[in-house]
């Protein structure tokens, strides 16, 4: 381990430089040997940021920027763990206490393909800790330990690294951010493609001031100052800055910049990088990885497309959100050519969409929507002999004719008894979209039959764009499998009603490794991708109903960890009835007010949770499934983070707690599942109650997990009649009363206390709307 001295004057200089339009020179890096002795450093305030640029020298290992350092056994840190042999890394917030390292929060990311420098920032403000990577705020946690001033530096526990001299400063000063806007830092092109124009988020540092505080005016001017609670620089008015762009190999790629965009023109096949650098501060830079595939257009093969593709060649009146489908003679495989599927507008040949098999992303929502959901995804799905290709959201327009081409090598298999060599323009895979828009407030969705829309997101896009916020809308979804991530924002009174519960399946793979974080929408200037790991993200919406359908996140837990099927990220009201939600970890996350009626929620780890006010589950099933990574683990049903001590939290009435096999077939061992565990935060409350519920033998006799050496103390530490961990009238699955004498940490309610906890839906939701109340009905 190695620390560098950095005095107060140097920190102030760094702060001034961040605000001044002057070119800075990056500090020379120094080598950190694994396990080297610690060197003394100056103290920094308890509230500060510590930042350094780091890169691995052995391809793997951990490195942390540390603060509040008391000695080798006590400090907090933010850093990167490069996992050997996986091509992945973990961005981490950690605490060393008494010589024991605890990972407070981890987010998986793809590691850069080379040992490039990355900028790590640890932000400490009171009990809040946050980690930034290359200027992007990754995550934050609450450190329950009292803040203390201490030393700061960089530590590499188990492998050598290079790192710049760490600098400190005011945590209210947020870092500059330079990155592609609402996109990953990875671009795929093919030789012969037209130049690709990508918007860049180039936003200078800004000072964050809590709402209501006095607003000072720094040298940079008022555009550097903002107030409020959001942390997105674009939303807060940070000032754009000019930047330059340079290709590492100009023989492969021509690079230009114009009007806040970077233009990439492929010249030859190969891999290269593009460095974006601020003209104001050379320390602010980013690297974009670019892969250029060779030109590989399809020949003109003799096989016929009629009967093998949908839409049929020459089809008319096609819904404008239609996926493309191909049916092979036998199950095909995705190729590794780097080619693409392209859709051109026929009347002028304009390219309207490019779809690649790997590394794609999309902006869910409609064109012109101020905030959209940016996500990484897999747009090409294989189902037996069938290939389903999803164009990017809202690319096709009504009343237009389109031509589809597929490069050779994108798909490998046989079609009509011949090797599939792609689809050439002259083969005539054309179709015309429906010219007229649907009318009324009921829209049908069907993946293959007569309908207004082919995808659920297509119907949501139209609803958000063309129906007034308060007007009730019904999306009638026919039986089928809809492989898509979903997004709804700014529209109330929307009902998604399936034809049958098991027949309508909205199913995709999404997780914390693919799209880190719970998720939020982004404006047009926001850097990176923050669309989150849920299948369905709902924001700023009230009275959303999910009725008679299934939403499934197909992530296997060892491959992605947290993976919501649903995230209701709104202070409004959600209804789920006769529905099913499947995942393994964090299946359902709710804020606001939610009512679940005769609904199945399946998972293993914290599969019901959220910063909510009141969530009521009636006559529902909570199914703990076998963990695909740890077959001996029964997991935890809930982690409540109810936002106020007087809120109702999570209440389960007349519901069944069952168990069953997980994705890999393993069931849950008896006595290994806990009803809940606490987040350990003192600013949210563990309000959970089970009343007249039946529980299977998988539930641990102790019931509640913690406090112990692995689990924190709940809040409140001692449950009362109206708050904390509680239950009443618990029976086994056959209806016999359960012996609750072995329960730990929770409270067994009396009959009167149980009646007070649940006096009907109207009483439970009386707090909605500042006392206006809510009384949902089946």
The tally of structural domains comes to 4
Task: Write down the CATH class of the largest domain.
Answer: Mainly Beta
Number of helical elements: 6
Summing up helix and strand content along with how strands pair, one would put the structural category as mainly beta
CATH architectural grouping of the largest domain: 3 Solenoid
In terms of DSSP E residues, the strand content is 35-45%
Strands of the largest sheet, in order across it?
40-41-44-47-50-53-56-59-62-65-66
Topology, number of strands: 66
Please tell me about this protein's structure.
With 778 residues, this protein is mostly beta strands. The chain has 4 domains: 8-175, Exo-inulinase, domain 1 (Jelly Rolls); 177-201 and 240-295, Sandwich (Immunoglobulin-like), CATH 2.60.40; 309-433, Immunoglobulin-like (Sandwich), CATH 2.60.40; 591-771, Single-stranded right-handed beta-helix, Pectin lyase-like (Pectate Lyase C-like, 3 Solenoid). Helices cover 5% and strands 41% of the residues. It has 6 helices and 66 strands. The strands form 13 sheets. Strands 40-41-44-47-50-53-56-59-62-65-66 form an 11-stranded parallel beta sheet, sandwiched between helices. It has an 8-stranded parallel beta sheet with strand order 42-45-48-51-54-57-60-63, with no helix packed on it. Residues 1-24 form the signal peptide. InterPro entries: Pectin_lyas_fold, Pectin_lyase_fold/virulence, Pectinesterase_cat. It comes from Pseudoduganella flava. One of its GO terms (molecular function) is pectinesterase activity.
């Amino acid at each position: 381990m190695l620390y560098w001295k950095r005095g107060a004057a140097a920190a102030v200089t760094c702060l001034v430089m961040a605000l001044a339009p002057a070119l800075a020179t990056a500090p020379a890096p120094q080598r950190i040997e694994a396990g080297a002795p610690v060197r003394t450093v100056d103290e920094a305030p308890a509230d500060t940021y510590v930042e350094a640029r780091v890169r691995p020298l052995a391809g793997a290992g951990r490195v942390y920027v540390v603060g509040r350092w008391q000695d080798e056994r006590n400090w907090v840190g933010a850093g990167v763990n490069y996992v050997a042999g996986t091509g992945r890394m973990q961005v981490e917030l950690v605490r060393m206490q008494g010589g024991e390292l605890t990972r407070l929060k981890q987010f998986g990311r793809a590691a850069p393909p080379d040992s490039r420098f990355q900028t790590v920032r640890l932000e400490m403000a009171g009990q809040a800790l946050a980690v930034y990577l290359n200027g992007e705020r990754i995550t934050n946690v609450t450190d329950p330990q009292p803040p203390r001033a201490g030393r700061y530096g960089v530590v590499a526990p188990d492998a050598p690294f290079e790192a710049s001299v760490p600098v400190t400063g005011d945590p209210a000063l947020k870092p500059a951010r330079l990155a592609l806007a609402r996109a990953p830092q990875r671009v795929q092109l093919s030789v012969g493609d037209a130049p690709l124009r990508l918007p860049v988020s180039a936003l200078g540092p800004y000072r964050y001031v809590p709402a209501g505080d006095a607003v000072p005016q720094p040298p940079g001017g008022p555009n550097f100052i903002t107030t409020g609670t959001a942390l997105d620089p674009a939303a807060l008015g940070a000032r754009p800055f000019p930047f330059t762009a340079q290709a590492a190999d100009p023989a492969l790629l021509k690079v230009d910049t114009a009007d806040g965009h970077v233009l990439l023109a492929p010249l030859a096949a190969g891999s290269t990088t593009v460095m974006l650098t601020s003209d104001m501060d050379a320390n602010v830079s980013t690297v974009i990885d670019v892969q250029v595939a060779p030109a590989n257009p399809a020949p003109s093969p003799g096989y016929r497309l009629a009967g093998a593709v949908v839409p049929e060649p020459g089809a008319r009146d096609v819904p404008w959100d239609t996926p493309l489908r191909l049916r092979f003679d036998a199950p095909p495989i995705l190729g590794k050519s780097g080619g693409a599927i392209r859709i051109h507008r026929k009347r002028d040949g304009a390219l309207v969409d490019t779809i690649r098999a790997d590394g794609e992303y999309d902006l869910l929502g409609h064109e012109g929507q101020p905030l959209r959901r940016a996500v990484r995804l897999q747009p090409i799905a294989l189902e037996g002999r069938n290939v389903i290709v999803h164009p990017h959201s809202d690319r096709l327009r009504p009343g237009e004719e389109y031509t589809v081409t597929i490069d050779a090598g994108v798909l490998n298999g046989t079609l009509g008894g011949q090797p599939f060599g792609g689809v050439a323009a002259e083969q005539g895979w054309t179709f015309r979209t429906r010219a007229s828009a649907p009318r009324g407030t009921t829209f049908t969705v069907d993946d293959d039959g007569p309908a207004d829309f082919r995808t659920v997101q297509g119907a949501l896009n139209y609803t958000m764009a063309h129906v007034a916020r308060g007007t009730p809308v019904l999306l009638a979804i026919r039986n089928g499998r809809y492989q898509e991530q979903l997004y709804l924002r700014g529209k109330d009174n929307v009902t998604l009603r399936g034809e049958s519960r098991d027949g309508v399946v909205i199913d995709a793979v999404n997780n914390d490794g693919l799209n880190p974080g719970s998720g939020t929408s982004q404006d047009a200037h926001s850097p990176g991708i923050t669309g989150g790991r849920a299948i369905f993200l709902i924001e700023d919406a009230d009275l959303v109903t999910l009725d008679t359908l299934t939403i499934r996140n197909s992530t296997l837990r060892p491959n992605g960890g947290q993976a919501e099927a649903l995230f209701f990220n709104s202070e409004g009201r959600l209804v789920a009835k006769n529905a099913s939600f499947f995942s393994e970890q964090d299946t359902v996350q709710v804020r606001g007010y939610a009512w679940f009626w005769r609904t199945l929620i399946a998972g293993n780890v914290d599969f019901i949770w959220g910063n909510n006010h009141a969530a009521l589950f009636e006559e529902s099933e909570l199914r703990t499934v076998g963990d695909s990574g740890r077959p001996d683990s029964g997991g935890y049903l809930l982690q409540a983070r109810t936002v106020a001590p007087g809120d109702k939290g999570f209440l389960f009435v007349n519901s069944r707690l069952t168990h069953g096999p997980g994705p890999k077939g393993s069931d849950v061992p008896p006595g290994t599942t806990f009803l809940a565990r606490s987040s350990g935060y003192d600013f949210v409350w563990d309000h959970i109650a089970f009343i007249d519920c039946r529980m299977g033998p998988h539930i641990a006799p102790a019931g509640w997990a913690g406090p112990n050496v692995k689990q924190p103390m709940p809040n409140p530490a001692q449950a009362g009649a109206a708050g904390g961990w509680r239950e009443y009238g618990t029976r086994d699955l056959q209806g016999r009363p359960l012996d609750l004498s072995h329960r730990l940490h929770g409270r067994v309610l009396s009959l009167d206390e149980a009646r007070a906890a649940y006096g009907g839906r109207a009483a439970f939701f009386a707090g909605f709307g500042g006392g206006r109340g809510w009384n949902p009905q089946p």
